[in-house]
Fold this sequence. Notes:
By secondary structure, this protein is α/β, with parallel strands linked by helices. The chain has helices spanning 18-24, 29-44, 71-79, 87-108, 144-160, 170-185, 194-201, 206-217, 222-231, 251-259, 332-337, 361-372, 389-399, 417-424, 441-448, 457-470, and strands spanning 9-13, 16-17, 48-53, 116-118, 124-128, 131-134, 242-245, 262-264, 267-268, 273-275, 301-306, 309-315, 327-329, 344-346, 377-382, 405-410, 430-435.
Amino acid sequence: MTHFDPTKNKIFFGNTDKLVDWIVDNHDQNKIIEKIRLMLKNYLELDNVSFLFGSGTSIHLGAVAIRNFPLEVETYIYEQEKTVEGIYQSFIFIIKQLQGEFLSFGKANLIEDTQTFEDERKWKFKIENDIVRDIESNEIVIEYEKVLNYLIAFEYILNEDKSKPRTDNYSELITAIKEGLFNVCDLENRKVSQFVIDRKKASQFEKDREQGILLETHTKYIFHEKFVKTLLQRPLNLRRANIFTANYDLAFEYAFDKLGVHYIDGFTGFHKRFFKPETFEYDIFYPGSTTSGKVQRIEKVVRYFKLHGSLSWVNSGQRDANNLYGIEEKSLESIELLKKKGEIIIYPSAVKKSYTLDLPYSELFRQFASTITQSQSVLITVGYSFGDEHFNDIIYQALSNPTFTLIVIDFQGTRNEYINNLKELNDPRIIILEGEFFGDFLTFSDTLMPNFNNIDSNERVANTLNQLLSTKPIIEEPAK
């Protein structure tokens, strides 16, 4: 049985495409998949295992990519003209400043008799009213986070200028941009991508079709749940696995809640949850036996780090002994009800690494660096395009450790300049899985993640209970 198109997938160990070698040696596709599972299993049985998830793991949930400025956020800013006059014009002014060099390049390289051009990657763009847009999505070609970063820096300069009173609306623009992002990343109010469902269901491969049906008929977080369930099968004598994510959405939080998994994320409290970085070092155990005094570690726990902040983090407005950092975690419903969408704590990743990082980011990045630079560590990146300088510097630092291994799982793979540069290092500790099958988060979660010996005992118990409860006969009381 075939599972993937060999021409649309690659498996690099160093700069050697092992998939080509295995196909030349007439390896069956099932055997190739089993090789990858075994390879991942060996690395997941190391003591220090970490994952870094990027936006490629949320696209199927209906989230928008922020490689360009999302069209929905632009539309939201335009709609704010009703209450903040001139806000959209201010937005366009900022965009033109940021796109100046790219716009000049585009005008100098226009395809004859059109307002379109190609860049050096052969990607096509169009120019409308001196704004460069993606020719397919119509989105403004500038990173969302770069716009936000520029505005925050500009806002700081304007605040420091005491020579004249401010009459601009940049504060309101920053708030609108954050509110717009909240709306497009609130996955509970987004539909699963019909494009992904249709592409999967139209595939010639059975596994793809099954994934399309799962997305259409099951909870939207089914593949996040599959990943977490498999990850928790690691032997209990190993350290907790670490999940790092650059995403603002709550996909993993919803999956954790569905599975009853406790996650240590740097916040503590119940009704009021405040950021306390010392909790990253906590763990959870069952009480010890009165006779032996031994304790047993609880199974369903992961360490979880949101490196760019979260839709659910807001400035609490006050600091005290219980909330030294002024950061509070709230439900998205509460944030919307309290009209705090414009106060969410999200991190503009385009900030130059020369800038000092403030809390909570300094602590989150310290945890990331401390974790992956330990001896015998493996970092598996999934759907991360290596566009963040802070992350990349820490990963490059980890590569100086001879026992560190980097596994990159990405749809684009070496078509991405940063990932291709990693391949060109020809380092056997760098493994790259790319393409429609091997670089796909859905496939990674339900096909490539390995099984362990003690698999699915909890799931079998849950399934048994579900079956018993759903088929429980109705016993009528006898008539009196």
